[in-house]
Each structure stands twice: as C-alpha cells, then as structure tokens.
UniProtKB/TrEMBL annotation:
Subunit field text: Homodimer. Interacts with GLUD1; this interaction inhibits the activation of glutamate dehydrogenase 1 (GLUD1).
Predominant place of localization: mitochondrion
Domain of life: Eukaryota
Catalysed conversion reaction: (3S)-3-hydroxybutanoyl-CoA + NAD(+) = acetoacetyl-CoA + NADH + H(+); (3S)-hydroxydecanoyl-CoA + NAD(+) = 3-oxodecanoyl-CoA + NADH + H(+); a (3S)-3-hydroxyacyl-CoA + NAD(+) = a 3-oxoacyl-CoA + NADH + H(+); (3S)-hydroxyhexadecanoyl-CoA + NAD(+) = 3-oxohexadecanoyl-CoA + NADH + H(+)
Record field: compositional bias (Low complexity): 18-31, 93-103
Region (Disordered): 1-48, 75-108
Coiled coil region boundaries: none
Subcellular location: Mitochondrion matrix
Pathway assigned in UniProt: Lipid metabolism; fatty acid beta-oxidation
Keywords carried by this UniProt record: Acetylation, Differentiation, Fatty acid metabolism, Hydroxylation, Lipid metabolism, Mitochondrion, NAD, Oxidoreductase, Spermatogenesis, Transit peptide
SUPFAM superfamilies per record: 6-phosphogluconate dehydrogenase C-terminal domain-like, NAD(P)-binding Rossmann-fold domains
Protein name listed in UniProt: Hydroxyacyl-coenzyme A dehydrogenase, mitochondrial
Amino acid sequence: MGWTRWPRRSFQPRRLSDSASVSSGSGQVSAEAKGGPQGSLGRRPSVSRGLAGVPAACPCPCCLALKESEVAKVKDPTRLPRRRAAGTGQPEPAAFPRGGARPSPRPARLRLTRPRRSLRAFAMAFATRQFVRAASSDAATAAAKKLLIKHVTIIGGGLMGAGIAQVAAASGHTVVLVDQSDEILKKSTKGIEESLKRVIKKKFADKPEAGAEFIQKTLKNLTTSTDAASVVHSTDLVIEAIVENLEVKNKLFQTLDKFAPEHTIFASNTSSLQITKMANATTRQDRFGGLHFFNPVPMMKLVEVIKTPMTSQKTFESLVDFSKAVGKSPVSCKDTPGFIVNRLLVPYMMEAVRLFERGDASKEDIDVAMKLGAGYPMGPFELLDYVGLDTSKYIIDGWHSLEPNNPLFAPSPLLNKLVEEKKLGKKTGEGFYKYK
Ligand SMILES: NC(=O)c1ccc[n+]([C@@H]2O[C@H](COP(=O)([O-])OP(=O)(O)OC[C@H]3O[C@@H](n4cnc5c(N)ncnc54)[C@H](O)[C@@H]3O)[C@@H](O)[C@H]2O)c1
C-alpha cells in the first residue's frame, strides 16, 4: 500500500476563510474556494473530496493543520446532515457546484472512504507536525551545542600565525602563540605590535587614548610558548599555521591530539593540503576542519571554512562563528585542492612565472600589466614574494604530484632555484624582488 496521489487541482493556497465559506452541509462552495474569485482554473473545488468544509487535498503543513482543527470541530464528518429534498423529507443526493462535472471515478483501490480519508489527513497533519517540530528542535539543539570558542592556541608564529593571533586577541579571545624558538616568537610579537600600531592609526585616528588601550588589551590577551603540548590542555581551538608540509603537520596534530581536551577543535590554515589527511592522523575527525585565512590576516576579510566528509555540523558552525567573531567573512568549501581562491590564483601566478622564464616579458612589466590592465592590487611576482616562494612551491609541488599531467600544475625551475637559495620573498628580504 502506497500513498494515494493527491489530486493536482487541489494544490492551491487556501486561506482560513476559504474553508469557512464552504457550505459544509450541502457541498456548495464559494467562488474563492474554487481557486480564486474567478475560479481561474475552472476546476472543481476539493470540497467534494475531503472532510466536509475542509479542503482535503493540499498536504502543506498549514493546510493540514487547518484540516486538523476542522477535524476537531466536526467530530464525525461522515454524519453531516444532508439537506432534505423539498417536500419528500428524504435526503438529497450530495450536491456538486453548478456547472461542475461529477468527479471522475478513481480506480477503486485508490478510493478511500470518508473516515479513512479523515484518518489519513489527521495522520499526515500529525506526521508533518512531528517533522516540523523535530526539524526545528534539531536546529535549536545544534545551535545550543555549538562551541563558543574563547581560548585559542595558534601553532606557527610566521606570517599567517602571527596575523591570526593578532585578530583573535584583538577580538577578545585569549591566545597562545606557539613556535619553535623564543627568538622567532619575539619577532612575531614585534610584528604584531607594529601591525596593531598601523591598525589604530586608521581605526582610532582621532582617539589616541582609545587606540593605546586597544593595543594594551590585545597584547594582554596574547601569550607565547615554545611547547605546544603543554599549552593545549585548556584550549577550545587549535589553529595550525606551520610549514606547508603534510608529514610535519600530521606529526604535530598526532602529538596535540594526545594532550588537547576532548572538546577541542583542530583546524589547519593550509593553503593546499588535504584537510581530510590531517584529520585522519588524529582521533577527532569530526572535530577537525580547515580555517584558511588570507595574507595579511588583519586586512583580508575572507576566511574559507573547510568541511571534510567527517567534520561535524557542530564543528563547522563553531568555526564559522569563530571566523565571524574575529571580524571575517567566512565562505564554505569542500575539501578540494586549493579550495576556492588558491585553485584559481596559484595557476595564474605560475603562468606568470612561466611567461617570465620564457623571456616573453619582464617580471616588472608583468606586474604593471596585471595591476593596470586587470585592476589587481598587486602583480603576480609581488604577490608571490608576499605569499612566500617556499609556500608557493609546496603548493604547486603537491598538486603536481597529484596530477602530474596537468600543465597548470607544472613546477617552475626558476621558482625551485630561488627557494633553494633561500630567497623566499619578503620574509627573507629577497625573492623575485629585493626588500630592505
Ligand atoms: N603565506 C601566505 O600567504 C599564506 C596564506 C594562507 C595560508 N597559508 C598557510 O599557512 C601556513 C603557514 O604559512 P606562513 O606563510 O605563515 O609560513 P611561515 O614560514 O611564515 O611560518 C611558519 C612558522 O611555523 C613555524 N613552525 C614550523 N614547524 C613548527 C612546529 N612543528 N611547531 C611550531 N612551529 C613551527 C616556523 O618556525 C615558522 O615561524 C602554511 O600552511 C601556508 O600554506 C599561507
């Protein structure tokens, strides 16, 4: 036994007044109940097919709720009084609207008796109500269960890690920034202080005291450490921003997995590696996702929130909320190489390097061309230096190993040479260009 098909003609929105205007006893219907003032479809109203006075066929929750209320009113719809035929005292045959044809008989197996129909309507209404209730309570429970991230541990105090630490601390989170040596961490903290000074110049241009307070508060929220394992015991979120190397990242996550509490969410800021592979190195695949910030973090508004097939909805929503809390605009993407931005951007930068390698144009002219011709704020070589040539090389090498025949992912001898010479871009003072 399957569901009886609802007649198509009855799928019309109905107002509460529609049913009121239906003459329940006689089966006479108002023009509105016919489907609008004009009875536009010229079809027979559903009154003849459902409970007396209740349009029977629309299965939408509001119509079903309406029907249910009518069920309560009309205890036994099969016993509705029929009009007496004039002079005979005998019940008149059920009337149909003037001009309306009698309903075409349905196949016998689909025809339901009135009590059965009323039962069906009631069951549908009940099921729909239960479904709506369950759905809304699921959403409420998910929202209630979302993790409010307050304490953040950031591993890697380089370009990205320091930037993420800055925006997280500035937005009131308590942050521990971790790197391999105190020397690196001193450099990171100095960089953050300088960046904060730039921020207050804009944000608190005419309120220097408020600006100084902002810096003080932000730095108060920030501490540093060289021992990740010892600081993750009370953290809500670990964001990894270390070297773009899967083995190194996996090793770090494996270690932290042993020391971090159960509720802690792990996230990687990787530009190009598979989040799923990192999640699989831990025992918390459902509490693992990608949080891909952009450089420079304090300026760039975007965060790509990456959901693997194992990332729970709660984790995903907590990461989205965290991104918003640090003042960013999150977009979501599946765990696909390069996510959204880099999948488009990296092949473009590599094509610029190939153009230069072939001697078709100078790097300076390529940069000028893309800035003035395409309206990009930076040329591809300036951007490569900014991102870091080692990071760019890791990305392209990784993709090349996945798809060796894809010409967009072909490695560049020039990029490899610069990385070998430790000319990594702005961060080392030299890349494609020299920086003081
Ligand atoms: N540079 C960008 O524009 C950019 C943008 C988005 C995402 N990312 C990603 O962010 C990550 C970091 O990139 P970055 O540019 O900040 O690199 P970076 O080289 O500037 O910084 C990496 C830092 O991690 C530290 N580190 C390395 N291994 C460590 C470990 N085991 N424990 C603690 N610290 C460790 C290093 O000492 C270094 O300070 C990479 O995964 C990269 O793909 C980079």
